[in-house]
Amino acid sequence: MNREKRPNLFLACRWLTVVILTMVCGGATCIPKRTIPEFQPTPVFTSAPTLDQLLEVINRTRVVQSLQSNSVSITLNNERPVNATMTWAREKRFRMTASVAGVAGLDIGSNDEAFWLTAKSFAATPEMYYARHADFDSQIDRRMLPVSPVWLVEAMGISDLNPTQLTQQPVTRGDGLVELTSLVPSPTGNYVRTLVVDPKYGFSREVYLKDPTGRLVANAKQSKHQYYPSIQTSLPHAIKVQLLPNGDPWELDITIGGYLVNGLPPQEVNLFVMPSIDGYRAQNLAQPQSYMPPKVAPPYPTTPQMTYRGVAWDGPVAR
Q1: In the chain, at which end, N or C, are there fewer CB atoms within 10 A of the end residue's CB?
Q2: pTM (2 decimals)?
Q3: Record: fold of 3-284
Q4: Residue 312 CB contacts under 8 Å (≥ 6 apart), including other chains
């Protein structure tokens, strides 16, 4: 197959972002996000913390079993933002979606077996990129996506640090922040993760991930933390993510208006079912040469209905 005819994840999603913005922010009114009261974190440490003290605060997120938000804003590669929803439940169940009129949209998802990314527009054949976790984890040459969507959860501040996997003692940087570097085992070798922790508040401000060859493949910077008493820790509400595969790089800015913590109803398990590949131009990311043309081309309306179904979160926010 010619290179020009292969699906291009970077270009498809960038083009989709422009389409959604044209529909949502050009021809219709963008729905304003609900403002929530400020819950400023309070200092946890009054003096330099020990390693055990830092680990205790960082690992408080172990009690988080699920996160939801209906007030998410996504900016892909410095384009204008798109409104979205996000749901995560342990261990690998994740869903982030943005749509217009139920036809065009972006769907990033994962369950315990596999993950996927779909991009649909009003005019072009929809794209799907997917892989089983076991197959993807066994592959080190990742040309389109360097990590699975589940890594976004760690970018959002949900970390689990095993002290036995630390490679060295904490390192205090020139800006006063503390680096904690640990190994992340994988079938292809050990990845190296560095958490940059605020020694005053105990939460992470940055995270870096290097593959077994030592190449940086993903990083995130976290800000606008808010404190959640129900889990006794703070979560970031602004995350700037960089993904660095062997192909085109990604930049993803995520802003979250508010979280619902540990409030996912049991019936929401159906949310994490992978869509059928029928009707999609599909590519298995664990098999870079694979390409599956659509079995059925879904119909598209000639004049899409100008509606937007996303609304600000109306449920309680657990704190």
Answers
A1: N
A2: 0.78
A3: outer membrane lipoprotein receptor (LolB), chain A (2.50.20)
A4: 31, 32, 33, 34, 70, 71, 257
